[in-house]
Design brief:
alpha+beta; C8orf32 fold; 16% strand
Length: 206
């Protein structure tokens, strides 16, 4: 003979079971609404970057010429929000600090607007398409704010490239002590292990 249980003992278990099902449904819905579109944007962005690299920039065999071609393409095709005439330009950007996680090149490849972080990320992705080893560098400005640029790794040599330099999109200013002295906490952008490279930069001024 089956045991008889009070009704108020059975009902709570049913509620718990139903709530668990709801949680699974909510999680699946969030995945479909948020994660799937991000994956799709990632695929579209990657395809656009690949197309840009080999149709708009060209497969130049000389690395120096290729780097200059990428910088020129950025200057001609990306709206630089640092310039006064573009300060009111509508541009969707990922907040600073989330860049290593969300990767801003998704957006900049589609919107083609931004500041130093977006320029550095787009340059890095385009350089990767051509097999140019590089990494993004970030630093804090003593006057507030921050800055990002790219280092090209060529054998044992590391070459800094300021992709949004006001002085002609070149790396020469990094060897200028008056320019370097305004930056602190110079480090490699990384989600897990951020290498501090401040000493190497400051050694240029010693």
């Amino acid at each position: 003979m089956d045991k008889a249980y009070p009704e108020d003992f059975i009902k709570p278990k049913r509620k718990v079971r139903i709530w668990s099902i709801y949680k699974v449904i909510i999680i699946l819905a969030l995945f479909l609404i948020i994660i799937v579109p991000i994956i799709e944007i990632h695929i579209i962005a990657k395809e656009r970057i690949h197309y840009t690299a080999f149709t708009e920039i060209g497969n130049e065999t000389n690395q120096t010429f290729l780097i200059n071609n990428i910088l020129k393409w950025e200057k001609d095709n990306i709206v630089d929000l640092n310039l006064k005439e573009n300060e009111n330009y509508p541009c969707i950007r990922i907040p600073y600090g989330l860049n290593p996680l969300l990767q801003n090149y998704y957006l900049i490849s589609l919107t083609r607007c931004g500041k130093c972080g977006e320029f550095a990320e787009m340059f890095s992705e385009l350089a990767n398409e051509f097999g140019i080893k590089n990494r993004i560098i970030e630093a804090d400005n003593i006057n507030g704010g921050n800055h990002a640029w790219v280092e090209i790794i060529d054998g044992n040599e590391t070459i800094p490239i300021d992709t949004t330099s006001i002085n002609g999109y070149n790396s020469s200013q990094f060897y200028n002590c008056k320019y370097l002295i305004q930056y602190r906490n110079i480090h490699v952008r990384s989600l897990l292990n951020s290498e501090d490279v401040s000493k190497r930069y400051y050694n240029w001024c010693s």
